[in-house]
Amino acid sequence: MAEERPVPAPGLFQRVFKDPEFRARAAFLRRVALFQDLGARDTGHLIQSLLEKTYADGELLFDEGDIGRALFIVERGSVEIFKHGTEGAPQILASAGPGDFFGEMALLEELPRSAAAIARSETTVYLLYRTRLFGLIQSRPRVGVMILNQLARLLSARLRATSRRLVSNDPELVGANE
Amino acid sequence: MISSVENRLFALLFASFLLVASYFFLAYLGGIAFVFFLGIVLAYLVNPFIVRWEARGYRRSRLVLGFYLVVTIMLILAARILVPIAASAMLTQKVRVGDFFDVLQQIPADIERDWLTRLPIGSVQAIAAMDAAQNWIERSVAALPSTLLALSPKLFDLVLLPVITYFALVEGPGWVHALIRVCPSRHVEKVVSLVYQVDEVLGSYVRGLMLDCLCFGLVTWIVLSLLHVNYAWEIAVFAGVVNVVPYLGPFSAGLGAAALAFMQFRNVPAVLRVMAAMVAIKFLDDWVFQPAIMRRAVHLHPLILLFAIMAGGQLFGFFGLVFAVPVAATVQAAVQVFYDWYATEIGRAQAPFSRHVASIPIV
Known about the structure:
- The structure holds 2 protein chains of 2 kinds.
- By secondary structure, chain A is an alpha+beta fold.
- Helix content of chain A is 40%, strand content 22%.
- By secondary structure, chain B is mainly alpha-helical.
- Helices cover 84% and strands 0% of the residues of chain B.
- Chain B has 13 helices and no strands.
- Chain B has helices at 4-29, 31-54, 60-114, 123-142, 144-150, 153-171, 174-182, 185-226, 232-242, 248-265, 268-293, 302-345, 355-359.
- Chain A binds chain B through residues 16-19, 22-23, 26, 40-41, 44-45, 47-48, 51-55, 59-63, 66-70, 109-110, 127, 129-132, 135, 156, 159-160, 163, and chain B through 51, 54-60, 62, 173, 176-177, 180-181, 185-186, 188-190, 192-193, 196-197, 200, 341, 344-345, 349-350, 361-362.
């Protein structure tokens, strides 16, 4: 997540006409790596494409094998991503906190999820659905292309890390690259 | 333990029950439900303007208030400008309106004089039929004031309509968010996908239809003006508005134009010219405007379209005719979404890359 910049206090016009919740969301999203290139108005269009949902502690966001259709961005709380182990015990792959996102493959193709995700406290996430991203690409091509570009860069980085991990068989390298 | 087949059967029965219950609920509430439905439709039409400004971070409630303020100012200005013009026009047109009714009542007598004498049928039966037609016209003209009076409860709906639209607009996408909140987590993705695909279909249909109606009305005005038909502007507005009902709308516009042309020119060739022009405009609409404008909207098979219109008319009357196509398009989009889900579940949605292509390493 990018560094937080100080936000100036809103004037009278902003207090009366501008939506403080929208402002907070926009500030939050601009700190998410996937959307950091977006301008103020582009972020506005993105916010309109997102859905907010709160999950209770221990609630399943999606299960392994479910068809993925959305990207999840954690706004607050934490999510654990795990695979069902062969002997019953889940194998935890990663944890996601505020500003992290996961499930990005669902934006590219609708395939079964390779892992499950569960909320580890009361967690609020923003969901970007494939349908909405495609709508955004059609109606605001510039915004859509910027998001897809960031997504491609992210996938490239993650794949390079995976390749290096496979070759060296050294998980420490992955952490250094990320 | 309940099997997945039983689960699906239960879901199907529950959905069918909801559908039937909704129909009886709507039929029972009748006009009240319709005003609410119309208010929500209006809000849906206005929503894109609000959304455009909302993306700049403005509060939705302020934007809706601003929109109402702008509309009110525009209405006041229009009234101040148009009312004096309309009043003076009415004074000068008073005689013409009287002429209009005279001509209307004279039509059966003219037809009897000019045409029936040439027909190879019994003149007594023909004259009796024409008398009946003349009586019907006279009764209809006489009953016009009472018919207008009977419509007065609708004025209350006119007042109610902007209020319903206001609340629907202020809430906006809140309805969808509320639906998402109550939806079980496992099904959220499916519900959202369905809601947004239906929204996209309806959105492109409504936008396309409005543009198509505008083009249809504009061309009608140009062509009728070139043919020197009186009230070309009024007919064009009527043609544009009724064009929302496929087939029946353009047909009634053509019929109206032909009737007015007959009253103006009082000869058949002129009427035929106007009718031919209206048919040509309809072909232009079908072959040029609609393919260009509605290319991103859902395409319904003509048989489904006809069935939807007739079923809509049968179930809900005139407004059933108007809303038959968007409802049918929505149902088709929903069916498409369900099919896509099914195709994805069984792995037929997208052809996977070949093993060779996938095996090339990332460099």
